[in-house]
Amino acid sequence: MRGELMNKTILVTGGCGFIGVNFVRLLLETRQDLQVINLDKLTYAGNLQSLEGVADHPRHTFIRGDICDPELIDALFTEHGIDTVVHFAAESHVDRSITDPDTFVRTNVFGTFTLLEGARKYWLDQGKGNNCRFLHVSTDEVYGSLGKTGYFTETTRYDPRSPYSASKASSDHFVRAYFHTYGLPVLITNCSNNYGPYQFPEKLIPLILNNALQGKALPVYGDGGNVRDWLYVRDHCEAIVRVLEHGQTGEAYNIGGHNEKKNIDVVELLCDMLDTKLGLPENGKPRKTLITMVKDRLGHDRRYAIDAGKIDRELGWRPKYTFEQGMKKTVDWYLENKKWSESVMDGSYQQYYTKMYEQK
Ligand code: NAD
Ligand code: DAU
Q1: What is the mean pLDDT of residues 127-138?
Q2: Is there an atom of ligand 1 within 6 Å of 193 CB?
Q3: How many angstroms does the Cα of residue 85 sit away from the middle of ligand 2?
Q4: Residue 24, in any domain of the structure
Q5: Is residue 269 a contact partner of residue 208, using CB atoms and an 8 Å limit?
Q6: Do the domain assignments include residue 293?
Q7: Which of 172, 193, 265, 348 lies 20 to 30 angstroms, CA to CA, from 253?
């Protein structure tokens, strides 16, 4: 069963988060015929300011709400005639899942279940299933941790090891269950670490950039030898469009950047890039001297690496950006958008909703 995106009404959940914002922007920039309904609770990670310039777009409707609210979800499907769901909304930060797992279970598991129920009732009870798609955005962390060699494929056994990855694995299982039990037209993508514009500065790359610009310590967990497979966010968003349009329902697709890097190498590279671009800081010391090895994350997965062969062979997708190109764009973006980072760090980004909607 293959679907085209033409004239679709897409419910994007979590469209004010890092990847969601990049995805909404991509759709509005490149597609003339789509309606985007953006549902986001605006948790600490949701930032309406990231949609500046497109929030008022005639084909974009923002709704502040919780994916765990079944009445709201049912009403959205019916009122907007949703035929496509791209589900990003989640609690996404591993460190927070270690200190506060409850919200991860609620949003990632119960929230996904609530959306699946909404789609089942609106699509299947009314015989609309064939033209609909539910794409669940998931992570490579469901597969656990690799040793020195090997890659995650779509058939790698699930072995989640943090509360975050356990909640995402659980949501993946619910999505598959709705395909097998009810025939809901679902797709799952499991992607590696994203980086790029609008990422909340709790995640490694924006955190290091912000700290380095402020002359603060650059925390590297453990021995810095943990490996992540980095993908530029625009590539991830384009892969999602490809899977939506051409993926086989019931199937999962791994998405990765062929970019395995040790954390310490990423942090050193960022320091070098800033030194080259801005010159050395006032104290004359290279920014690398700010690197501070700190206590390791509990249960820290050692290595992730994606085999993205299936999406390449079957759907013809592969990343367009090399790590060097993506990192250059990312560093440039954070340097050109310091106000965005400042408003996140001083908390003023959270008043944006009031400015845009409650005062109208
Ligand atoms: P993010 O934390 O930046 O954004 C999450 C968004 O979801 C926020 O806008 C937040 O307000 C919203 N949200 C949270 N709870 C909600 C709820 N109950 N109802 C409605 N909205 C809610 O996350 P991200 O990095 O953009 O990740 C998006 C998705 O992609 C997640 O599902 C994540 O698991 C997955 N993913 C992320 C990466 C990555 O590297 N960032 C890689 C692979 C997969
Ligand atoms: O692999 C996909 C996952 O990538 C997504 O599912 C998650 O939503 C996303 O947050 C990301 O998870 P990670 O835990 O890999 O990302 P994070 O940026 O938190 O950390 C990247 C690596 O850097 C990880 O090995 C931990 C390390 N780290 C992180 C921070 C915040 C540090 O060494 N120092 C830090 O301060």
Answers
A1: 90
A2: yes
A3: 26
A4: yes
A5: no
A6: no
A7: 265
